[in-house]
Each structure stands twice: as C-alpha cells, then as structure tokens.
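Quick check before the chapter quiz. The format below is the same one you will see on the exam, so make sure you can read both the input and the output lines.
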Amino acid sequence: MEHTAPRWLRNMAGVSWRLLVVVAAVGLIFYATSRVQLLFIALFLAFVFTAVLRPFVEVLSRFMWRGLATALSILGGILFFVGLLTYVAYSIANQWQDLADQFSNGIGQITDFLENGPLPFKITNEQIAEWFTTAQKWVQDHAGDLAGQAAAGAGSVVEIFTALALAVFCTIFFLARGREMWTWFLNQLPARARETWKTAGGAGWYTFSGYTRGTVIIAVTDGMLAFILLTILQVPLSAPLAVLVMIGAFIPLVGAPAAMIIAMIVALAANGLLSAALVGAGIALIGQLEGHVLQPFVMGKQVSLHPVVVALAVTCGTLTAGILGAIIAVPLVAVVWAIFSRLRTLEPPMEEDEADDDVGPVDETEQIEDDESVKER
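Here is the expected output.
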C-alpha cells in the first residue's frame, strides 16, 4: 500500500528546499564579497560618485566635449572635498587653545555638579582620579595590543586610499562612457533576457542615484543648519561639529544621535549646561525637519522603505561589516526592493479586514483528497 505524505507536508518541503537554496546563494554572495571587500567598496564608491556628479556632467556636456565635462566635474568634487577638510583643519587649529581652556573650566563645572549637585548620587574628585589611574594602568598593560591595532590601522589607511583611487578611476569611465558600457553588457546577453535586465537595471539605478543624491543634499543641508545653530550659540569648533553632523546623516538611525551627543559634550564643557541643552534641542529639531520635510521633498517615492525595514537593514549591515555595512545596507535593500517591485506581477490587494479574518472552512476538494489518502493508509 502506497503511503502519501499530507499536502501540507509536501508544500512545506517544497518551500523549505527553495529557502535553503536562497540562503545558500545569499551566503555565497556574502562570502565572495568578504574575499574582495576592497573591490566591492571601490565599486560602491564609484557608483556613489557617479550618481552625485552625473547631473553636472550632463549639464556641462551640452556646451563641451563629454570627456572635458567629466574631468571638470571630478576636479570640482575633489576641490570641494579638499577645501572642506582644509577649512575644518584651520578651524580646529585656530580655536584649539581657547577650546582647551574652556574645556578645562567646563570639566571643573561638571565635576563640581557631580559632587555637589542635586543628583541622588555623588561622584568625588578622588573617585574620578582613581578611574583615571585605572585607565592609565590599563593603557600601559595593553600597550603592545594597542600598537598592533595602530599598525593594522595604518594598513587600513593604505587600503582606503587604494579604494578611493580605484573608485575615481572607475568613476571617470562611468561618467564618460557609462551608456556605452551598459549597452555592451546588454549585448552580451541572450536577446530574450535583455529587456528584463534593462528594466531591472533602470529601476535599480533610478533608486540608487535618487537615494545617493538625496542623501548628499540632505547631509549638506543638515551641516549648514548645524553650523548656523552652533555659531549663534557660540559653541567652539562649530565648523568641525557641523561636518560631523553632515557625516552622521549618511549613517541611518545612529549617525545623527551620535553627532548630537558629541556636539552637546563640547557645548557642555565649553559653555555650560544651558548651551548643551540648546544644542541638543536644535540638532533634534534639524532631525525632525530632515525626516518630515527634506526627505519627502528631496527623495519623494524613489526610496519607499518602512522604518522597520530600515532598522533591520542597518542592524544586519552593522553586524556584517561595521559602520560601512550600516552605510551601504539601506541603499542596497532599496535597490533590491525597487527591482523586485518593477519585475513582479501584482495580484489584487487584500483589505485590512480581510487580512484579519479568521481562517475559513477548508476547501471541499482538498478535504476529499486528504480523506482518500487517510483511507489508503
């Protein structure tokens, strides 16, 4: 007598082996990416640079040769970045002595508040000195490990410059001959698959470029608003802190709060508790402006991800590749979702009340087949 597995078991088995194949494919992609991480980073940066600079190249190419437009756009981007770093370094060097004096006074105010303030606990100068001595001893005991980490960091710096050089090299060709390269790639595919790849590539690039340009515009706006706020409140190192706020805009969820905390610490040490509170409130207000005005206005519907998906993507990216993973996780998920949404065939949508209904009666045909299988056994 033939024994037939129940329908639900057969369905679950079919879904399970497909999920195993998908998980194996994703694991293989992550493993391959980890082996060529430098190449992946360089290619990702090249796409970012291309997305940001392409509008300038398109405008300039109307009046000059496209190669010259590409060179001028890249040179302008490099000069802007170098000028920003120079201004930040000049601000730090010019205000360092005043900040050191203010920081010393601010630390004294903080310790006095911890020792004599209204808090339910007390922290004395002796306890702080003991903690400092413990930290100093820990540094001395782990000097060898710290030196090894510093040497590894020096190697990372070399890798960073290598990735940047490769990214700029690829960006030149993407900007100057990107359409020709994409057409060549499509021509290598079978004719029946070209339209699908063309549709997927267009949807992916539209989403990635929109996200990248939108993030850059929002980050620059956040930095400018933070600079104005910190300048009005007379917080030292307003330019470097504004740049820090701008950089924080590239890291979803955690970047802006981290920049806000650092700015509040500087304001607290230099100008007191009221200044720190005003800095925190001002930067939080900038974050609200970003989330409710700038992002919907700048990005529109190009990147439509639920906040839960963003949080999960950032967490997975952080666990996988640290800060770099947190930065690239959201645009990658947005691109995958855009391609999936463009290629899928939608069924008629369900209403919320239909989704909440209890399970209805079992279909009669399925019930008869299950009864027959039981009789055979």
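If your answer matched, good. Residues 46 and 167 are 4 Å apart (CA to CA).
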